[in-house]
Specification:
Number of helices: 4
CATH class: Alpha Beta
Number of strands: 6
Pfam families: MoaC (PF01967)
Oligomer: single chain
CATH topology: Alpha-Beta Plaits
Organism: Macrococcus equipercicus
EC number: 4.6.1.17
Keywords: Lyase, Molybdenum cofactor biosynthesis
Order of helices and strands: EHHHEEHEEE
Protein name: Cyclic pyranopterin monophosphate synthase
Largest sheet: 6 strands, antiparallel
Number of domains: 1
Amino acid sequence: MNQLTHFNDEGRAHMVDVSAKEVTARTAVAVSSIEVNHMIYDQIINQSNRKGDVLAVAQVAGIMAAKDTSRIIPMCHPLALSGINISFSWETDEKYILHIECTVKTKGLTGVEMEALTGASVTALTIYDMTKAVDKGMIIGPTYLIHKSGGKSGDFSR
């Protein structure tokens, strides 16, 4: 597993051939977050942002991004995803932090980690885009993989 696989015999980038792999059920869960100020928090929970329902738009953007991951990450394989779920939870103790969780599933030859990470990332970026008129000082991240299952490399849990 220590050898990079995205290079051909000439040392040039290529998309890995996964045709010899077995089709298995694969799941990946990734998270991201965005820290906002109190005004943005109020707009989001009260759905009063003039651009619309921030979480609904961000959720759709995250789903669309997960489906299109192979179009923006050069060596990702196009996958037929069987399910994508994006959920939200607030942390409001000392700061206003929206936690984003993206779960992606498929039955295929390769995993869906990149799709889950892309979905979580674009969800956070969309929230930023829809609320940046109020405050451009929002902080996105960290973004990371929580869990993945299926495939030759087995399960991973952070």
